[in-house]
Design brief:
- With 359 residues, this protein is α+β, with helices and mostly antiparallel strands.
- It has 2 domains: 90 residues; 239 residues, 2-Layer Sandwich (BirA Bifunctional Protein, domain 2), CATH 3.30.930.
- The protein is 40% helix and 21% strand.
- It starts with a helix and ends in a 13-residue tail after the last strand.
- The protein binds phenylalanine.
- Phenylalanine binds next to strand 10 and strand 11.
């Protein structure tokens, strides 16, 4: 018996190491450990043996079975590693090849404008922060000093999800301001971030779509004041609209999460249907802003007697429309290839401050 097992074992080992691919190895497994396999056949024979015979043969057969399984597993990992090597070698991309001469597809104006904004604020020392589109009521409202029953909730045309087992309803974030909360809860000041992203409100006409884009700005430090807000916005708008001067008008307004709050208009002119930003006799409202309300700082465990800061929120789609001259926001999200070809940006042209934005 012992000899029979030893020679079977040698035979199987030889087959395992000869298996050149996974299919061949699987054949060996079926022929040995499979239901009708040689090892399984011997195991079945145990039933017909006398107790004494079984005492000897049982452990021998068991270790044969275990050894064969181990050898197959070892061979399997060798074959897998070799297959992976082969795949990596065959899928190698030569990144030093010259780029495609005529790439198809183009960058959507919203992506372009987001890149431009990130580039400008990076030069001012801002990081880019992100938050989820599906927000908790706490981050989207309560922590921003909009408690339940606050009338400001009604202005937001909120999309609510079904309540969970605790009765909590998540919302599609109605603005990027919840990223302020997430950032203040996770970081220690000084904080300087922008947060571009998607936002949602149940609203639709030529200048409103249910999904749109905003960029939030937040600065928190020990001696931040309104002058910093105004200077930051001026630097941003000058760079964004590529003009030497912008004149801003800060109009008193109300947001629950800022105090004081102001809406910001830029001076402009409408000549022959085209807006020109920078000078003129008209004003365009472009963003909401203010000094972060002390109650918001408290919700984020920051001491308002030590820290203060400013925040602003601005519609990205609207900035794109103003800068690149589209007049219907809905077309942004229609996926009409003619529109995309006309208004899209060259795929490999990343906007940089040094290289210029809108060549
Ligand atoms: N979250 C405001 C809105 O969506 C904009 C805003 C952001 C205002 C930050 C002030 C400060 O209308």
């Amino acid at each position: 018996m012992q000899e029979q097992i030893a020679s079977l074992k040698a035979d199987i080992s030889q087959q395992i190491s000869a298996a050149g691919d996974m299919a061949a190895l699987e054949d060996v497994r079926v022929a040995t450990l499979g239901k009708k396999g040689s090892v399984s056949g011997l195991m079945k024979g145990l039933g017909g043996m006398s107790p004494d015979e079984r005492k000897v043969a049982g452990p021998l057969l068991n270790s044969l079975k275990v050894d064969v399984a181990d050898e197959i597993a070892a061979r399997k990992s060798v074959l897998e590693a070799a297959a992976l090597e082969e795949r990596l070698a065959s899928e190698r991309v030569d990144v030093s090849l010259p780029v495609m001469a005529h790439p198809s597809g183009s960058i959507h104006p919203v992506s372009q404008v987001m890149d431009e904004i990130a580039e400008i604020f990076a030069s001012l020392g801002f990081d880019v922060a992100e938050g989820p589109d599906l927000e908790t009521d706490f981050h989207n409202f309560t922590a921003l000093n909009i408690p339940a029953e606050h009338p400001a909730r009604q202005d937001h045309d909120t999309f609510y999800l079904k309540p969970d087992a605790n009765g909590d309803r998540k919302v599609l974030r109605t603005h990027t301001s919840p990223v302020q909360i997430r950032t203040m809860l996770n970081e220690t000041p000084p904080i300087r971030i922008i947060a571009p992203g998607r936002t949602y409100r149940s609203d639709s006409d030529a200048t409103h779509t249910p999904m749109f884009h905003q960029v939030e700005g937040l600065v928190i430090d020990k001696d931040t004041h309104l002058g910093h807000l105004k200077g930051t916005l001026e630097a941003f708008l000058k760079a964004f609209f590529e003009v030497d001067n912008v004149t801003l008008r800060l109009r008193p307004s109300y947001f629950p999460f800022t105090e004081p709050s102001m809406e910001v208009d830029v001076q402009c002119s409408f000549d022959g249907g085209n807006v020109k930003i920078g000078d003129g006799n008209d004003w365009l409202e472009i963003l909401g802003s203010g000094m972060v309300n002390p109650r918001v700082l408290e919700h984020c465990n920051l001491d308002p007697t030590v820290y203060q800061g400013f925040a602003f929120g601005c519609g990205i789609d609207r900035l794109a429309m103003l800068k690149y001259g589209m007049n219907d926001l809905r077309a942004f999200f229609d996926s009409d290839l003619r529109w995309l070809r006309h208004y899209g940006f060259r795929a490999l042209d990343l906007p940089t401050l040094a290289g210029g934005f809108s060549r």
